[in-house]
């Protein structure tokens, strides 16, 4: 095998006769055999980590905590500072704090700093979901809808661990690089995150570089490096510990060469997460996978069907979670497990000790 | 955090012997002090007591190079009982003496690499063999300090195990003069482990002493020049120098055994600082040290030869190596202790000096560098070629200044960098600090701005008359505009006396050129004959800028009406004076910069508003930027990038102007207007005509179109611009390329005040003659030489004859001399006229500062920082050398590599007396017999060693500021004699007359030991381009490295006549030749002479 040649292509997709027609986003993952619910409850952490968690939670639960409205305000005394809204408290859930702690390698100050930064960033970007807050111009389902007309990004199906699948189809690009593209990416990531079922807070990203020749598609070129880097930074800084796996297929040769060269230098953790040119069905059950990738879902993207449906489903899911959050007391540090479930009793109260 | 600075013990490199070599003048009156240290032995050192196989050695040092050592003892015997002599530095910075005891450990070469870890001696001594049980930091640092190979290729490696040291102060040792009369009683001193002390301090943030035992020492002081000074006096003098040289005197304390156990030393002063520096990363320091070692070891190898002759002990090469390693050890150890390696004022400069070549500085407002490119490169090469050693004083200088340097706690990396910078740079090139540090750190040299001139029209040109038909006709005028080196030639307009041009020209204006003037010359283009000069005017730039700044809108075009002075002879004078109309605009650099970015932005992207992604994409086009950089932009204008807000194009432009990350602009090298890459290429750097080395000014000029024609500065001199095509072809065919500095017979001289480049004319037959003589070989040329000699002598005699007075008039006429400055206008002989005196005050000394050297003669001057360079650029003879030039006159001081040379060529029309360039005492002059070749550049730039073979007088001069230098008056063709008016031993003031030449062209050569003088940058610049610069007696030519360059003020040229006069000083005007019937006055004289003499007419050896 040559240095830059890719692995042997998977056997051509068979014509299946058991296709499941589908044109909308699915919210509920299939029931796992022998498992109750989709995910599992919170995992154990050590007592020190629990203490750390408590301190971080207390920091954000503090009523006196105020944060600036935009990212420019650091070092600016005159900046307007506001306390956390209820939607923000909803966002700062137990899992969220744990994610930031894990991402910062259980470094307390760093986690607090990163979390605050994300809160401010979400305010500036207009991701608070707060209907009362003045939403920033741009980032709404309507404004980014046009970006998804060819279905270049999709949330569809779940992998074997019930994580939602986030498709990114580079070859379905329909617009020139713009800020809206970045916003669209943020919007879709948010949607994918919202689609996480109970007990799951990670997503699987499937990247397909294949060029689709359909009306409306203008290029299969990867976005400019600068934008790609900016997007990557957003995902890294503001969606930490959200990526479970990233599977890339149909990689163009130059990218493939680059990947091959860089592979030995990648961080082992990252390396583990990234999968290059392996068939999706290796990781995903066929009945959750697009038929195009050898799955059973006979999915054809229809923008006017999929998009309003996805927006509505995400909003509804979020609303429902927020309602349950308010119902359980509306405090910082409630568990997403509780929001997402259907049970009536609070499983993880605020002072629940995860080290026991 | 305060940087640990160089303690007094750390010291400069350099050796006394070299010092004496290089700078004979350092102190003729100052005695040399020698410290004699009798090293008895040690007692109570646990290492030596516990181990029988130690080889103790004791090193006495005042600084890094001034080091003496005892022999290495065997078998743990630590009784040296040996006398170590140590010269005290002449220019001391510290009076500290360190006596360090080492143990030499021999390690087989194979295992040497493996056994890097040498255990440190502790109060309970552990075996000093490779041990992995010691803590990491100790291991590493010990290894760094102790592992040096003594013989790079040998079988054994020596490791010098640091045992301990005694630090003493000379001042205190000898206060009250107690030991001047005879050897001092030996005393026991406590040996301290300073290294460990430091480590302890770094690691634990507290002081602790580590006494290692005792050492018996006694001291004596010896002074040279005992006839003139008593020891006490000498010592007092030395202390005085010391006091004057140390900015903050660091007092050490003597540590006698019976005294208190108080340890006071230089490090005590630094203690506060060093404790503050506790979190300093020792490990990184050590890695830095490791790198350092490699380099400096290599350097030591280079220095082998020099070390040899300076070591008075007869040493085997192995022992020698030992010393070097010891020195190395000492130095390294010093560093360890004091971290003296950051020489604050040199390293940032060095960094920028190098980064200047990178793109950073080009657009940058924040690139700091030395005054000008040329001067810095000059300095570097000077240091490179000359001074292989760091001067001790300089080192200390730089460390002194580093004292105020602030350092960050995480300075490990920076430290490393600095270290590397210095080790790479200084060690490799051994840069002389003095020459480096004397340049002031200034903003990168870019032009002041761009001058735009529109040549509009000329009114009222005179009507010309044809010589043959005597018909009046209208001319075809064109304009030659000269500013410094830039020559622009307009198109010609047919048959008009009121031509309208509307042609534009634009050029960069540099600060050093701001006293130059714009010179306009109106020419008449002839179809068949040579072009005729019609009128000219000279407009000083200062005058223009005064007008420009007086108007309300200083950036707008300003109309100028320039009255022209007619020079053409055969004209029917118009009733009205001809007037040249021009418009001038000057745009300063900062405005250009803004303009540039505006265009760059507009060209690169048509948007008016930029959101986050637009900005990212835009920056991507310019170079490598991250999204954080883009966010910074938004932050600056308080826009919210993530909320999708925009910044406007104006804001972007403003942001880019003040952007500091200029190194990132990788793709901006293309001019947005003409799309030509403007990155400095080899080609463009070599090109001598383009001065647009800056994209911003290039862009300004490039964009300046206005629909009119823009002229290009494509001529070397205005004379060339006014030539007809056939003359150019002829010149090209006969002499090759006409360009600055090309080796041809065109001698180009730049007037220092006006910046005009003028070609010095030599009549064609003279050129031919010279070619025959100086390129010919064999009998013929020898005949010619003899002829020249007889002629010169004869001519000299003839000109001493009263009958020669007749020739004065024709001489004056030929050279258009101005006798108004002459003291006496009555001459008895021609020679008397030739060495005429000027009225007192007509050649004032430009700068009274004794640190500034002035020109010794009215002459054409070239300066070079080394003989090597001289030979490469100017004196092309392979036989030329300083030894030959000065006939081995005190050749120990002037070596080819480290000698600056200044050549002052006097032409026949010049004032022929030479003056003293600085306050100095005259030594014994030496007359050297020789040939009488011409000193014309044409001959200088041939194989013939003119300076080495001509008759000459070598006058050694002794100056306090510049040391000893030689003033060599070289006689030339027909100069029978050089007459000195001062004699041996005279004290001569700067600018005072030294002597004079009798008839002919001749040359003064100044030979200076290198580090003592830095020549003015404009002279250096011109010399590199092989242009001579016209200087006058009293003009500054150079300065000591310690002082600043004399800033030239403009001596405004009052009118066109004055300018013409300048030109005549340089060259003989064509018109005067014509007036004299096309034959030079000498020609006639010589012809008759030769006829009388040889009977054969020879038109070869004519003038000069």
TrEMBL record, chain A:
Record-given protein name: CRAL-TRIO domain-containing protein
Domain CRAL-TRIO: 143-301
Entry GO CC: cell periphery; cytosol; endosome membrane
Cited Gene3D superfamilies: CRAL-TRIO lipid binding domain
InterPro entries (alphabetical): CRAL-TRIO_dom, CRAL-TRIO_dom_sf, CRAL/TRIO_N_dom, CRAL/TRIO_N_dom_sf, PI_Transfer_CRAL-TRIO
SMART domains: CRAL_TRIO_N (SM01100), SEC14 (SM00516)
GO biological process, one term: phosphatidylserine metabolic process
MF term (GO), any: phosphatidylinositol transfer activity
Species assigned in the record: Huiozyma naganishii (strain ATCC MYA-139 / BCRC 22969 / CBS 8797 / KCTC 17520 / NBRC 10181 / NCYC 3082 / Yp74L-3)
UniProtKB/TrEMBL annotation, chain B:
Co-factor binding details: Binds 1 pyruvoyl group covalently per subunit.
GO MF: phosphatidylserine decarboxylase activity
Pfam families the UniProt entry points to: C2, PS_Dcarbxylase
Cofactor (UniProt): pyruvate
Start and end residues of each C2 domain: 431-555
Cross-referenced InterPro entries: C2_dom, C2_domain_sf, PS_Dcarbxylase, PSD-B, PSD_type2_pro
Acidic residues bias locations: 297-315
Annotated region (Disordered), positions in chain: 8-31, 297-382, 388-407
Keyword flag Lipid metabolism: yes
Subcellular compartments: Golgi apparatus membrane; Endosome membrane
Residues at the catalytic site: 858 (charge relay system), 915 (charge relay system), 1002 (schiff-base intermediate with substrate), 1002 (charge relay system)
Highest taxon, organism lineage: Eukaryota
Site residues (Cleavage (non-hydrolytic)), renumbered to this chain: 1001-1002
GO cellular component: endosome membrane; Golgi membrane; Golgi stack
PANTHER family attached to this UniProt entry: PHOSPHATIDYLSERINE DECARBOXYLASE, PHOSPHATIDYLSERINE DECARBOXYLASE PROENZYME 2
UniProt function note: Catalyzes the formation of phosphatidylethanolamine (PtdEtn) from phosphatidylserine (PtdSer). Plays a central role in phospholipid metabolism and in the interorganelle trafficking of phosphatidylserine.
Protein name: Phosphatidylserine decarboxylase proenzyme 2
